[in-house]
């Protein structure tokens, strides 16, 4: 099932519009690149995503049995932002 779980849906950014909300006027291509790395090229993921913070977010949501989180059944209601260094952070 398609959810907002960083799964790569294809290169067309419009494929992601129903699952993600961008809080700026740009960023879809960067989100697509993050999803591509998460699904298809894990070796580059640490250069795009703060893995320490992401691991803490997953552990915290698992501890609380948060089904409405990234790793939950619904895979929604979490935030990821891109910092000034170009790294995504939860």
Q: Brief description of this entry?
A:
The chain is mainly α. About 30% of the residues lie in helices and about 5% in strands.
How is the topology of this model organized?
Blueprint: H1 28-40, H2 51-63, E1 81-82, E2 88-89
Antiparallel strand pairs: 1-2
Number of helical segments? 2
- Gap from first CA to last CA: 23 Å
What best-fitting shape do the alpha-carbon axes yield? Answer: globular
Order of helices and strands: HHEE
Indicate the mean pLDDT.
Answer: 87
**Radius of gyration over C-alpha positions, nearest whole angstrom:** 13 Å
- Characterize the biggest β-sheet: 2 strands, antiparallel
Count of beta strands = 2
> Beta-sheet strand percentage?
under 5%
Parts with pLDDT < 50 across at least 5 consecutive residues: none
Residues in helix, %: 25-40%
Strand order, sheet with most strands: 1-2
**Helix-and-strand structural type:** mainly alpha
Commentary on this structure:
This protein is mainly α. It is 29% helix and 4% strand. It contains 2 helices and 2 strands; from the N terminus they run ααββ. A two-stranded antiparallel sheet has the order 1-2. A hairpin with a 5-residue loop joins β1 (81-82) and β2 (88-89). It is globular, with a radius of gyration of 13 Å. The relative contact order is 0.16. The model has no long low-confidence stretch (mean pLDDT 87).
């Amino acid at each position: 099932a398609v959810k907002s779980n960083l799964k790569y849906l294809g290169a067309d950014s419009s494929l992601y519009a129903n699952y993600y909300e961008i809080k700026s006027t740009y960023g879809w291509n960067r989100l697509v690149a993050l999803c591509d790395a998460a699904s298809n090229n894990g070796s580059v993921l640490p250069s795009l995503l703060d893995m320490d913070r992401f691991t803490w977010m997953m552990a915290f949501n698992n501890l609380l049995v948060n089904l409405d989180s990234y790793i939950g059944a619904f895979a929604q209601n979490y935030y990821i932002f891109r910092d000034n260094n170009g790294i995504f952070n939860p």
